[in-house]
Amino acid sequence: MAFDAIPKLLSDALVARGYEALTPVQDAVLEPEARGRDLVVSAQTGSGKTVAFGLAMATELLDENGYAPVAAAPLALIIAPTRELALQVSREFIWLYGPTGARIATCVGGMDASKERRALSQGAQIVVGTPGRLRDHLERGALNLSALKAVVLDEADEMLDMGFREDLEELLDATPEGRRTLLFSATMPKPIVALAKRYQQDALRISTVTEDRGHGDISYQAVTVAPADIENAVVNLLRLHEAPTAMLFCATRDNVRHLHASLIERGFAAVALSGEHSQNERNQALQALRDRRARVCVATDVAARGIDLPSLSLVIHVELPRDAETLQHRSGRTGRAGKKGVAVLLVPYPRRRRVEMMLRGARIAADWINPPTPEDIRIGDRERLIEALLQPVEIDDEDRALAQRLIAEKTPEEIAAALVRAHRARMPAPEELIDVSSGPPARLDGPRAGFEDTIWFRMDIGRNHNADPRWVLPLLCRRGHITRTEIGAIRITANETMFEVPRGVAGRFAEAVKRTANDTDDEGSVKIEATDGKPREEARRNRREDGGGERREPRTFAKKSPPPRATLGTAPRRSDHADGGQGAGGRPAYQGAGDKPGYKGAGGKPGGGFKGAGGKPGGFKGAAGGKPAYHGGAGRSGAGGPGGAGGKPTRPAGGKRPR
Question: Secondary structure of the chain: what % helix, strand, coil (to 5)?
Answer without folding.
Answer: 40, 15, 45
